[in-house]
Amino acid sequence: MTTNTELLAIAKKYIGYNGDIFRKFAGLEKGQPYCNAFVDYIADKGGVAKLYFDGRKETYCPHSYDWCKEHLAQIPPYLAMAMDVIYFDWQPNGVPDHIGLVRARRDTNSVYTLEGNTSKLNKDGKVVAKHIVAERTRAGKNVQAIFRIQFAPPKKLSKKKLDPDGDMGWFTIYNLQIALGLKPTGILDRATVMALQKKAGATPDAWWGPDSSKKIQKMVGAKKDSKFGKKSVIKLQKWINAKNYPAGKSKKTTTKKKTTVTKKPAAKKTTAKKAGKKGGADIPYSKLKAGDALICYDSKGKFHHIVLATGNHKYIDCTNTSKNHIAERDYSVITKKYHVTRAFRPTDPKDAAEAVAWAKAIAKTGDYTYKKWKNDNKKTKQCPICHKLKGKYKGWNCIGFVTAAYYHGAKMKNLTCSCSGLGTDGFFTKVTLASWKKRNGNNWTIVTN
Q1: What is the architecture of the domain spanning 4-147?
Q2: Rounded to whole angstroms, how far apart are CA atoms 270 and 293?
Q3: pLDDT tens for residues 413-442?
Q4: CA proximity to 408, closest of 378, 383, 391, 432
Q5: Domain coordinates of the chain in residue numbers?
Q6: Residue 298 phi/psi, 5° resolution?
Q7: Ramachandran class of 208: left when φ > 0, alpha when ψ lies in -120 to 50, beta otherwise
C-alpha cells in the first residue's frame, strides 16, 4: 500500500498544473473550483482513494468536511503529518471554503501545504499565478480543521521506551495506544483521540481542539497554553513512558504465598446523571454541525438554555448572566453546566451557514438590542420575532437570539414565536421532531447521541 510520503511525492509532480485534469476526473465544468477534486485525484493516483472520503469523488468542501468529522480525528497543527487533509474557512462562518493537503507540520500556528485551485506567491508575497497547484504556508487563523488520514505505518512497530524528542510520529502513537489500553496500530484514529480525551477529562468527541489540549497538558504536566506543541509532546511522551514502564515494578515470581483475603464493604451504587426526559449522555461535538440549535437540560430533564453551534468545537449564545451577553464560547463551557442531548438542524446547509454568519456578526459588534430589526412587518413596522422581547432583557433572551439568527440570518419566515422565542420552557422539556416541525416548519432534522 502507498505510504503517506510516497503519496506526497506523487502529489508534488502536479505542482504548477491548472485545474483541467482534476475537473475532468471529478466531472466538473471548466472554471469551477477544483480544490477538492485535486485531493480526489491524488488519492486515486496513489491507489488510496478509500482513505479519502471512502473513495467518493467529492467536489464540495462542506460535504467532504462532514465525512471527515464523522470518520477521522481532528488534530492540532503541530501534530499534522504529510497528506493529512486541511480545511480553511476564510470568513469565518463555520462553513469550509477550501481544502488542501498537508506537506509537513511547521509549528503550532502554521502548516506547510500543497493545494489545488490556489495562488503561487513570490518571495515578496505577491501573487504570480492563480488557480494552479502550488505549495503554500498557511497561518493557523484561517485553518478550520486538520484531519488525520488513516495511513498505516511504513514499518512494523513494537513496544519500546520512548526518547522524548517532541515528535508525535507513528512510534509515539503506537506506545500511547498501549498506555491507554488500546490495541496498538500506530494510527492516530478517532478511538485513540477519544480515549486520550476521556483520560484527561475532556469531552471524548475526537475533536482535539484548544480545550482538549489544555486538559491533556494538565494531565501530563505541560504548560496549559491550549496549543499542543513540541514541549507538550515531550511531556506526553514522558507520561507514556511512566504508564508503560512504572518505576519500582517488580517482576512476577512463581513462588506462591498464602494470602488472607479481606472482604471489602460493597461500594455504594451511584446513579449517573441523566439529561433530557429519557436521560443520556451529551452529544459529541463531532456529531454536530454549524447551525444546529442545541437544547440544554439539567440533570432532571428540565430545559434551561438554547445555543447555536458555530463549528470548530464552539457555539454562540445570549445570556444575561455574563458580561459578554452574546459571545462565541467553547463547547466544553456549556457541557459543564448542562446536558446537551438534543439538537435541531436545518436540512438546508445554506440556512445553517447564514444563521451562523448572522449570529457571529452580532457577537462581533456586541449589539445586544433588537431595535434595528423592527421593520420586517409593513403594517406594524415591527419584527415578529424580536419586538416581543422586552422587560429585564432589553433585547433577546437565549431562545429569542437563536430564533432571530434563523429568522434574520437564514430568512426562515415560517417560525412560530412567543416571547420565549422558539417555544416555552414546557415546550422544550417535551420537544420532539414532530412538535418542532409543527412549530417551525418541516425543514429540520433531529440529532441525538
Answers
A1: Alpha-Beta Complex (3.90)
A2: 31
A3: 777 654 444 555 566 667 788 888 887 788
A4: 383
A5: 4-147, 170-242, 285-448
A6: -90, 180
A7: beta
